[in-house]
Amino acid sequence: MSSLPEALHTVGWVIAEGVDVPAASGEVVRVLDLLGVAANAFLASVLARERRFDLVAFLVLGVAAGLGGGMIRDTLLQQGPPVALTDPAYLSVALGTAVVFYLIRVEARWWRGGIRIIDAVALGTWGAVGAQKAVLAGLHPLPAILLGTITAVGGGMVRDLLLQRTPIVFGGNTLYATSATAAAAVVVLADALAPEGYESVTVLLAAVIGGGLCLISYRRGWRLPEAREWRLRLRGRRVE
Amino acid sequence: MSSLPEALHTVGWVIAEGVDVPAASGEVVRVLDLLGVAANAFLASVLARERRFDLVAFLVLGVAAGLGGGMIRDTLLQQGPPVALTDPAYLSVALGTAVVFYLIRVEARWWRGGIRIIDAVALGTWGAVGAQKAVLAGLHPLPAILLGTITAVGGGMVRDLLLQRTPIVFGGNTLYATSATAAAAVVVLADALAPEGYESVTVLLAAVIGGGLCLISYRRGWRLPEAREWRLRLRGRRVE
Amino acid sequence: MSSLPEALHTVGWVIAEGVDVPAASGEVVRVLDLLGVAANAFLASVLARERRFDLVAFLVLGVAAGLGGGMIRDTLLQQGPPVALTDPAYLSVALGTAVVFYLIRVEARWWRGGIRIIDAVALGTWGAVGAQKAVLAGLHPLPAILLGTITAVGGGMVRDLLLQRTPIVFGGNTLYATSATAAAAVVVLADALAPEGYESVTVLLAAVIGGGLCLISYRRGWRLPEAREWRLRLRGRRVE
Asked: Which of A93, A179, C109, C128 could link C183 by a cystine bridge, Cβ 3.0 to 4.6 Å?
């Protein structure tokens, strides 16, 4: 539970020191973004190890889980090749994480707890970054929120498709996709209010809110309800 | 069985009234297109309810089924972000339909029969619209027909992948993909013959033909045959 | 085992005759590329026949397996519609092969052996062509190698997703993806050394190396090891 206070502390610190807030927020967002790539590549490596896959599978799943959401986002926005391909840092982090956790098996409990926190913050960050990019590309609020959500949960969906698992966003879950949607919605709302040039501050704030919601819903076991059983009987005839 | 006569009636009406036929056809095509989004989001919600999924799953499947085909089409054509993201009507219809049928369970038989008809007309519309867009983007006839077919069946394939079902286009089916291909082929053929500016009339005609073929093949149980058992024995040695 | 010597012979021949080497290499690469489309569409048809699918499924799987990798590559590079849609030769070969092997069942052993060789050479060719395109689009070496690998194995992954099989690149395999990565890496390395205008010669060389590695690893049963069992015990507490 240390990442939220830390992130807030960083923001407070740069304001106190008179540092360029938007630039510093941009840096923090980039670090959170890359931490998210590493956390998701690690989580994919746990699944690859369970199935006794070889190195290629670790790499494929690491890239799919860590970079898949952003690649889908950039492919849909059509403003040039995905940032995952043009900025070598992304691919290096995804592949490097996959190689490290192919070689090393981690079992300590505090480690997985830490990864869960990083994953939650990354979920919020990805939702916020995706929505921000969509807004800057001129999309309406609703599609921008969708694109933020896709950015955040897309990598996990591709990973689950490759592993032939039911995608993690389908039920039985705490507010996973919902947290990403919340972060994306905060960005879309805040963009209308924040002064120009403060986009990265908005993203950071939204990431913290989304990540916090994800962690709280996990700890408290909050879930969305299943489909309601209200039945609309039109002329009363039942089908099957 | 009322949508075909209705659509034809609309065309007849605008001709009789001396209204701008291409513009009116364009409007009819747009309405059929959005009706198709709603019909496919509804059909996805039936599958989501069977599996007792939560609201997020209803939304994900509604968007995938209703907008997936068009998003694949626009991503491949690379003429800017998909229309599903730039025209908020598409996303609103898909999400709105998913929310409504998350809250309400419909059991009446005539309702599902009506949805089947709308789905068939939408299949033809999507095949025709996709082929039209491809032709206007300068693609050759064969790729244009492929793209029309992908537009029509792509959403259902993505939905089935997410649900880990055998895609509906693979066998055991009436002429589903075939009807979309027929609509796309009519557009490609008609474009060579129709006067300029009448693209939307062509699309409407092709949608009616494709949708009609889909409905007739369903009622009569028409299917494509399985792979033939003609064996080419080269030197007569069998493999395994 | 005749395609490698043949390809080398062709290169030798054009050099001996004083023919324009880059142009001739480009032609050879195009032929290998299209042979790969046919080989993959054939291999997909074998799977479709096993499942007693109809013609539509043969066509869908043939297109997915034969053209999927290149379509993903071109979609990510975002330099216009995929070559599989703009050059009708690709779609014609994929669909034509699917139709032929829907009608005809081939059982001879030498035939499948020949297809395996073509498939290996195609794997190398696709890896090399994909990396070359990525380099020309200005990507860094690492993303270029990734994109070459995706080009080579992407079609098979889409095919396996549609068939709900574990993707062929995940373990239990000889050096399949690894051979494609090797071909892509050769291109990236050679591009730094080769004189300008000799890109297609580089691709041909890389394709032969990648294809050769694929065949040799198949014959000798070379595999990558499973994930190591080195455990990092941090404070010694085990999870689960």
From this structure: C128
What's the CA gap between B63 and B76, in Å, rounded?
18
Judged by CB atoms closer than 8 Å, whether chains meet at A108 and C233 is answered as: yes
Give pLDDT tens digits for B18-77: 567 777 777 888 888 999 999 999 999 989 988 888 899 999 999 999 999 999 999 999
Q: Which of residues 124-143 of A touch C (CB under 8 A)?
A: none
Structure token pair of residue C143: 């993303």
Q: B57 to chain A: nearest residue by CA?
A: A170
**Partner residue facing A105 (CB), from C170, C178, C231:** C231
Residues of chain A with pLDDT > 70: what percent? Answer: 84
| Chains sharing 3 or more CB pairs under 8 A with chain A | B, C
C231 has a pLDDT exceeding 60:
no
Whole-angstrom Cα distance, residue C48 to residue B170?
Answer: 9
Contact criterion met (CB < 8 Å) for A139 and B51:
no
Which candidate from B86, B95, B102 shows the least CB-CB separation from A139? B86
Q: Which of B35, B62, B38, B69 is nearest to B48 (CA)?
A: B62
C30: how many CB neighbours lie within 10 A of its CB? 15
DSSP state of A202: H
Chain C: give the shortest CA distance to residue B200, in Å. 23
Residue C2's Cβ-count burial label (10 Å; 0-12, 13-18, 19+) is exposed
DSSP-assigned letters across all residues of B41-107: HHHHHHHHHHTT-BHHHHHHHHHHHHHHHHHHHHHHHTSSS-HHHHSHHHHHHHHHHHHHHHH-EE-
Q: Tens of pLDDT along A39-57?
A: 999 999 989 988 888 899 9
